[in-house]
Specification:
57% strand, 174 residues, 13% helix, 11-stranded antiparallel beta sheet, mainly beta, flat
Length: 174
């Protein structure tokens, strides 16, 4: 009986173990959790050869009908791209509620986009809110727009520009 298959299997196992150990050491992750009777928080950090990211969230409630929560996160890729998000919401015992948020993206080849806004309902049920958005492509063309809601009426405006800042027609890409 030849020892060659045994040697090949042993060598393969050692190589595979080395690959998995190297890969596992290249990734890092941490998580922190805190909880109380009225809320808590979670934070997660991740890092590896392709990206670094962080996420956090927290919540609280007082037992009287009032509660709020928020979360945010960010990621940065080794290719130069990055993104972040931040959002929150609340609810009050009187029936009022709302949410707000923002997000940002920076593409690895120069494009960017961002948006922010919020919407709320008062104790009488009246809803109002607004959101604004901007985007710029790697070629310099851009879009700026906003949407508002008030008294049951939704209004949207938007403008597209070329790299020189001149207004151009807004069209959807196919």
């Amino acid at each position: 009986m030849s020892k060659t298959p045994f040697l090949i299997a042993t060598i393969f196992a050692l190589c595979a173990t080395t690959v998995f150990v190297d890969h596992a050491e290249a990734r890092e992750r941490s998580r922190a959790v805190q909880r109380t009777g009225q809320g808590g928080s979670v934070a997660v950090d991740r890092s590896n050869a392709r990206f670094d990211s962080q996420r956090q969230r927290a919540w609280q409630a007082d037992g009287q009908g009032n509660a709020s929560a928020w979360r945010n996160g960010s990621i940065a890729g080794t290719n130069g791209g990055s993104a972040s998000v931040d959002r929150g919401a609340y609810r009050n015992a009187d029936g009022s509620a709302g949410r707000q948020g923002s997000a940002y993206v920076n593409g690895p080849h120069g494009g960017t986009a961002s948006t922010s806004g919020g919407i709320s309902r008062d104790a009488d049920g009246n809803v109002s809110g607004a959101r604004s958005t901007t985007a710029t492509g790697a070629n310099g063309n851009g879009y700026t727009g906003s949407t508002t809601v008030s008294g049951g009426t939704v209004t949207h405006t938007g403008t597209c520009t070329n790299a020189s800042g001149e207004t151009i027609a807004c069209t959807r890409g196919h």
